[in-house]
Amino acid sequence: MDVLNHSDPMTHGSLRFLILLTAGLCSCGRPDAQKSAAAPPAPVEVAVAEKRTMPVQMKSIGAVEPIASVQIKSKVQGEILKVHFADGASVKAGDLLFSIDPRAFEAALKRAQANLAMSQATADNASEQAERYATLIKRGAASKEQTAQFLATAISQKSELAARQADVDEAQLSLDWTQVRAPISGRAGAALLKAGNIVQANGESLAIINQMQPIYVAFALPENSLDELRQWLDHGPPVVTAYAPDTGRLLDTGELSFIDNAVDRGSGMIAFKATFPNAEEKLWPGLFVDVTVKLTEEPDVTVIPAVAIMEGQQGSQVFVVEGDTAILRKIEVERTVDGLAIIAGGLQPGETVITTGQLRVSADGKVIVKNSEASPPAP
Q1: Would you tell me how many other CB atoms lie within 10 Å of the CB of residue 64?
Q2: pLDDT at position 29, please?
C-alpha cells in the first residue's frame, strides 16, 4: 500500500490551486461584487404651475365667403365700347364698369320725346275745347252732347299724354342702362367680355363683384355644443377669431352673427357664420381658416404646458420635481387651450413639472434642470 508523500511539491501546488478556486467562487456570489455605479441624473426642462385667467372657447375650421356676390349683366343689347376697371380692382357702388354703344337708345329717346310733344299739343287743344264748351253750355249756347264729346276727348288725350310720357321714361331708362355701374362695393373679378363684344340683354355675365367689407366666415360645430353656446348669447354675441391654418397668424376678429335653424342629420353638425370687418382684406373668399369662438373667461385656474402631460393606463400623469427627484403623480386635466393644460386636480400652483426629457426619467429618479426660467408659455 502506497503512503501519500506530503513533501511532494506537485501535491502542495494542487491543494493551493483548489483553495484559491474555491475562494474565488465564493466571492463571486456576494452582492457587493454585483453592485454597479449609480445612474447619473437625467437632464430635463421644467415649468412652474401657475394660476391664470383662461378663455372658454370652441374651435373649428371655417371658410371665408362674401356677404354679397353679384354677377354683373347688361340689361340692354349692344356693343361694348369700353371697360372702365382693371381686372381684380376694388370698386365702389355706382362706379362705371362698362360702356355700351348708346346711339340706338339715344335715337329711341328722341323719338319718344317727339311723340310726347305731339301728344302734349293735342291734349292741350282738347282741354281748351272742353273748357270752352263747358262755358257755352252754362249759357245755353251748346248742346249737352257736344260738350260731353269734347270732355271725353280731353280725358282721352290726357291718357295718351301719360302713355307717351311712359315711353320717354322707358327710353331714358334703356339709355341709362348702356352705362353698366357697380351695384355694390367690393372687389371685381376679371372682365369676362372686353370692348368690341356684342352683349345680349340679361345674357352672360360681364363680371362678378364680391363684397369684401364686411365678410362672412362659415363654420360648423357639433350639435352638442349648441346648448352651451346659446347660454352665452344672452351676454352678447360671442367673439370669433380667425387664424391662418399654416402659421397661426391672427387674421381678424369678428362676432357670431348667424346660427342655422337645423342640424345636419348626416354629419350631426350645425352651421354658423361670423361677420368680420376685414378692414385689411386679409380674409379672402374661398380661404380656409382656423376659427376660435370665445364664450367667456375662467379666472384663477391652474395651468401647465400641455407637453408635460403623459397619458398612460392610469390616466394623465406628470413628473413633479421635488429637490432633485422626479415624483410621478396622477392629475386631472379639464381641457387644453393654446398649448396650456387646465388642471382640475392633483397639482398645486408653484409646483414644478418636467416638460422635456420625460423618457429619460424614472419614478423617484434623480434629475438635473437645464432651463433656468421655468414658466408656462404665454397663451
Answers
A1: 22
A2: 46
Could you give the domains of the chain? 43-54+300-369 (2.40.420.20), 58-67+211-299 (2.40.30.170), 72-99+180-210 (2.40.50.100), 102-177 (1.10.287)
Instruction: Return the pLDDT at 5.
Output: 45
What nine digits make up the cell of 13?
501546488
Contact between residue 90 and residue 207 where contact means Cβ atoms under 8 Å apart: no
Per-residue pLDDT, 23: 47
12: exposed, middle or buried (Cβ count in 10 Å: 0-12, 13-18, 19+): exposed
C-alpha cell at position 2? 502506497
Contact 119, 157 (CB under 8 A): yes
CA distance 302 to 322: 19
Has residue 189 got a pLDDT over 60? Answer: yes
Backbone torsions φ then ψ of 42, nearest 5 degrees: -80, 130
Cα 302 from Cα 306, distance rounded (Å): 12
